[in-house]
């Protein structure tokens, strides 16, 4: 597999430019860090991405329906289809839990976002192992260059956002809400 120079230029553009601006904005401290609260700045981009991520997972399920229909005719095909759909639905539930934590400004958002990031390669590995085992084919036939590129890019880009979530003053100021039961217990 060989990539052209234009491919790498586009990758650099999509990854390098946001990283450059994120690092540049991180260098100059805010005049009043307490004012950095709420969904603004880079956190708004993260919020948009997190809101769209469950839709992307649903789109992946929808676009795979033709392949699933073909797999249903193969021996052990239904096992593969049901297992893969269950795995994607579990990941979808995790994405929705992270989204709700973000919208509620929960303190747990940072940890949940980290778990969601770590789940990307876990879901990919479990899916590849499941398909390989159920169909009795080597993993090399299941995992091709095209199938490997999307999770790697997703993992790297989400990793940049995880770094932002753990370094950002705005994130630290925004996600402070504790569950009501914990607030009542601490007030007594």
Automatic annotation (TrEMBL):
Mind listing the UniProt keywords for this protein, alphabetically?
Answer: Membrane, Transmembrane, Transmembrane helix
TM spans (from-to): 6-24, 36-59, 79-101, 113-135, 147-166
UniProt keyword annotation of Cytoplasm present? no
* Short name of any one Pfam family annotated for the protein: DUF2569
Q: What is the protein name for this chain?
A: DUF2569 domain-containing protein
Q: Which organism is it from?
A: Mesorhizobium kowhaii
């Amino acid at each position: 597999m060989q990539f052209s120079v234009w491919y790498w230029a586009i990758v650099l553009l999509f990854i390098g430019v946001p990283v450059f601006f994120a690092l540049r904005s991180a260098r100059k401290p805010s005049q009043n860090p307490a004012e950095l609260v709420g969904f603004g700045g880079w956190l708004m981009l993260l919020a948009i991405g997190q809101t769209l991520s469950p839709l992307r997972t649903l789109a992946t399920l929808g676009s795979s329906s033709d392949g699933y229909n073909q797999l249903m005719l193969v021996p052990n095909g239904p096992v593969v289809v049901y297992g893969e759909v269950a795995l994607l639905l579990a990941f979808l539930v995790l994405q929705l839990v992270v989204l709700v934590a973000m919208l509620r400004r929960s303190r747990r958002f940072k940890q949940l976002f980290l778990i969601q990031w770590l789940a990307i390669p876990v879901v990919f590995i479990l899916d590849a192992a499941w398909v390989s085992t159920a169909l009795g084919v080597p993993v090399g036939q299941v995992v091709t260059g095209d199938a490997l590129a999307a999770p790697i890019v997703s993992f790297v880009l989400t990793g940049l956002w995880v770094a932002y979530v753990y370094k950002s003053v705005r994130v630290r100021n925004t996600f402070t809400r504790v569950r009501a039961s914990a607030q009542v217990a601490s007030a007594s």
